[in-house]
Design a protein that fits this description.
The protein is an all-alpha fold and about 600 residues long. The chain has three domains: about 20-35 and about 220-375, no CATH class; about 40-220, MFS general substrate transporter like domains (Growth Hormone, Chain: A, Up-down Bundle), CATH 1.20.1250.20; about 395-600, MFS general substrate transporter like domains (Growth Hormone, Chain: A, Up-down Bundle). Helices cover about 65% and strands about 0% of the residues. The chain has 29 helices and four strands. It has a two-stranded antiparallel ribbon with strand order 1-2. It has a two-stranded antiparallel ribbon with strand order 3-4. Helix 6 (about 110-125) packs antiparallel against helix 9 (about 195-210), helix 8 packs antiparallel against helix 22 (about 440-460) and helix 23 (about 470-485) runs antiparallel to helix 24. The two termini are about 50 Å apart. Keywords: Membrane, Transmembrane, Transmembrane helix.
């Protein structure tokens, strides 16, 4: 009798539980997703980012002209005075991972505004420097940090607003660097010649404050709220089989899954795979849920994507996965491709290994920490900073031999990269006795052709039998040879020819290298690769110009500095050429995954 009552009680509890599940279907659940508009207000963002680049890079590149006036005032050697210009160029790259974390935590707009105010303040304070050492600290170190806070978030905002037209938008942004180089050099000479170097730098500080307005325009992209449709039958069956699902959970690293906060309730921690189900493709379907600490609650949160949430490869439209927390949906660095400046549609031509088995937009979903409850949602802001900082300083990616070659190559290339920017004006005016006003226009020539080279690199790489890597390597080698030959220039005309040719040839080292890196590591680890590359570039950017100044102080001429600087660029091109000799790690991973899968199937049969 007692056993019958217990059985009736269990049946009643089961009915109550099933009724709760049925009632939960009446509740509407939503996910949040940010979809790039690819136009509209995005073009305003692109123009604002271009102007930020113009002011930021223009000010740093104008140091080639400022150097003459600063050296006359402080009476120091070339090596020391060139540190004033090289330190900010290196520091604003070194702080890239930190700035990225801050932008992901607080948003790009406030970081740009703070960076603009800080950079302007440092420039003004540097004019009161009692000696060159104080100026290196104020303008170089602290100013470099604030310059980085303006530069990187402005570029990221463009990538956040554009997808299909990203290459065009970023082309507009990079034009700002060239425009700044061609205009700020002569402007610096004009201002400092008439008003003195202190007043000239203060005017540049006032120009820097305009980035406050440009940053204010960059409003974050608001996520769209999207209804999630669930299938009751699948939920009930998943609840009944929750015990089996526990045993079949696949490790995230082996399955290549991504932790994305979808629906946060109780202790449910749903996970989805990077590769969403796409009709007519090899992409695997959406991954099953990971193990939950509470199977019953976890099963209530299982949901299937509605038809509007699926990706259609045939129609060409692709929608990203949504997240449960709208703040995470607005965090730019939670997109793996946010630092990629090219168009992802070009990756199928420019990149042969990174995306041949995945949809470009789906691959842009990144590792967002899974949110479990309301208390952990509050911690997501802290994680937003820590996750990106950890991602961009993960040196384990250097196990990828191709990326290691790129990083070593950039160590050598950056030793000579800033040589024409910071030393060419002094080389012409001091060694060739060219008038300083006339010599300052060498930066204008360099900037104009550098802009042209940045635009031309992509179309040249699209030519049959060419690739981003081949064009990059050929032009980098050419830039090194030209820099060596610059030692044989003898007047303004020959220096101008060098400025034009080198400006064009060195441009793809910045514009095409992102495609080369993506080809080596894929979008999966692109942010990590670029974060590590920032660190390598930052260190050698600080060393390069002072090393050239040391050679100038020792030999009393710049010709040896240009020869050695050019040799460094040539060595860098050889390292990049060796990339084709190294087997891509992704192909190795694919073979290993296939072997593991075959072994698993064999074990099942046994």
């Amino acid at each position: 009798m007692a056993s019958k009552q217990e059985l009736d009680k269990k049946q009643l509890e089961e009915q109550v539980r099933l009724k709760k599940i049925a009632d939960s279907h009446l509740e509407e659940e939503y996910e949040y997703v940010t979809e790039p508009p690819d136009g509209g207000f995005g073009w305003v963002i692109a123009i604002a980012a271009m102007l930020c680049n113009l002011v930021c890079d223009g000010t740093l590149f104008a140091f080639g002209t400022m150097k003459v006036y600063l050296q006359q005032h402080f009476g120091c050697s070339d090596m020391v005075i060139l540190m004033v210009g090289s330190v900010p160029c290196g520091v604003y790259l070194l702080v890239g991972p930190i700035v990225s974390g801050l932008a992901n935590r607080y948003g790009c707009r406030p970081i740009i505004i703070i960076g603009s105010i800080g950079a302007a303040a440092c420039m003004v304070l540097s004019t009161f420097s009692p000696n060159v050492g104080a100026m290196i600290i104020i303008y170089g170190i602290f100013g470099g940090v604030f310059f980085g806070m303006v530069y990187l978030p402005s570029v990221v905002m463009v990538s956040f607003y554009f997808d299909k037209k990203r290459a065009i938008a970023n082309g507009l942004v990079t034009a700002g660097t060239g425009l700044g180089a061609l205009s700020f050099g002569p402007l610096a000479n004009y201002l400092m010649k008439i008003y003195g170097w202190q007043a000239g730098i203060r005017i540049f500080a006032a120009i820097m404050l305009t980035c406050i307005g440009f940053g204010s325009i960059m409003r974050p992209l608001q996520p769209t709220k999207r209804l999630i449709k669930r299938e009751p039958e699948s939920e009930i069956s998943d609840m009944k089989n929750s015990k089996d699902e526990k045993q079949k959970t696949v490790p995230s690293e082996a399955a290549g899954e991504t932790n994305v906060p979808l629906l946060s309730a109780g202790n449910a921690s749903p996970r989805i795979n990077n590769s969403t189900a796409v009709s007519g493709s090899d992409i695997p379907p959406v991954a099953t849920l990971g193990t939950s600490s509470s199977p019953t609650v976890g099963s209530l949160r299982v949901r299937s994507l509605s038809s509007s949430s699926r990706v259609s490869a045939t129609s060409g439209g692709h929608l990203p996965h949504g997240v449960a927390n709208p703040e995470d949906a607005s965090r730019p660095f939670y997109k793996k491709d946010v630092l990629f400046t090219g168009s992802k549609s070009q990756l199928h031509h420019l990149s042969h290994t990174s995306l041949h088995n995945s949809n470009p937009y789906v691959a842009s979903v990144t590792n967002i920490p899974a949110l479990v409850d309301e208390e952990q949602k509050k911690d997501s802001a802290v994680k937003a900073f820590a996750d990106i900082l950890r991602t961009m300083t993960d040196f384990s990616i250097l196990k990828n031999k191709q990326l290691l070659l790129i990083c070593i190559g950039n160590i050598f290339s950056m030793l000579g990269y800033y040589l024409p920017i910071m030393c060419l004006v002094s080389y012409a005016s001091e060694d060739h006795k060219v008038d300083l006003t006339k010599a300052s226009f060498l930066l204008t020539i360099f900037g104009a052709f550098n802009t042209l080279g940045r635009f031309a690199g992509g179309p040249i790489a699209m030519i049959p039998h060419l690739s981003a890597l081949r064009v990059h390597n050929a032009l980098l080698f050419t830039a090194g040879v030209l820099t060596v030959l610059a030692a044989y220039t003898y007047n303004f005309t020959s220096c101008a020819v060098y400025a034009a040719l080198c400006g064009f040839a060195i441009a793809p080292h910045m514009s095409l290298l992102p495609s080369v890196i993506c080809d080596c590591v894929g979008l999966e680890r692109y942010t990590t690769a670029f974060g590590v590359l920032f660190l390598f570039r930052g260190v050698t950017s600080i060393i390069g110009p002072p090393a050239a100044g040391f050679l100038k102080d020792y030999t009393k001429k710049y010709d040896l500095a240009f020869v050695i600087g050019g040799a460094m660029i040539i060595i860098a091109s050889f390292f990049h050429m060796c990339i084709v000799c190294v087997k891509p790690d992704q192909e190795v991973d694919t073979v290993e995954s296939k072997n593991n899968e075959e072994a698993t199937q064999k074990n099942k049969l046994d």
